Amino acid sequence: WYGLADALGEARSEMEAACALEGRDRATLEVTVGVNVDYSGGAGEGYRRPPLSGSAEEIAAGLRGYAEAGVGHVICSLEPANTGSLARMAEALAFYRGASG
Fold first, then answer.
1. Where are the alpha helices (DSSP H) in the chain?
2. What is the pLDDT of residues 7-41, one digit of tens each?
3. Cβ contacts of residue 33 below 8 Å, gap of 6+?
4. At what angle do helices 83-100 and 56-68 cross, to 10 degrees?
5. Calpha distance 86→94 (Å, rounded)
């Protein structure tokens, strides 16, 4: 589970090396990642990697980083898991879609 897309580097390198070893074109894989999104204001406590957090624009920018890194699917884990967080995530997704074209 990730926060910012820049943390993908090592895992991405390992995946590409495994593809090369097996003779598989990396472009044939659809990359999916899990992303922690923290609306609790807890400054990322209890996460292995810092989660996405902040305004709708900041969350959208974080998601855009995954798209730019070639990630096809993002699974988001919201903290806290409640309707308020879901509404805030919906706002971030609307901003992402609007800003992404």
1. 9-22, 56-68, 83-100
2. 888 888 899 899 999 999 988 989 999 999 999 98
3. 2, 8, 66, 71, 73, 74, 75
4. 60
5. 12
3-class DSSP state for residue 75?
strand
Model confidence, pTM: 0.85
**Does residue 56 contact residue 15 with C-beta atoms inside 8 Å?**
no
Alpha-carbon torsion (64, 69, 72, 73), positive or negative: negative
Output the CA–CA distances (angstroms, integers) from residue 32 to 2, 72, 76, 97, in the order listed: 11, 6, 11, 19
Q: pLDDT digits over 91-100, tens only?
A: 999 999 996 5
2 vs 41, which has greater pLDDT? 2
- Chain-centroid distance, C-alpha 46: 17
* 37 in Cβ contact with 53 (< 8 Å): yes
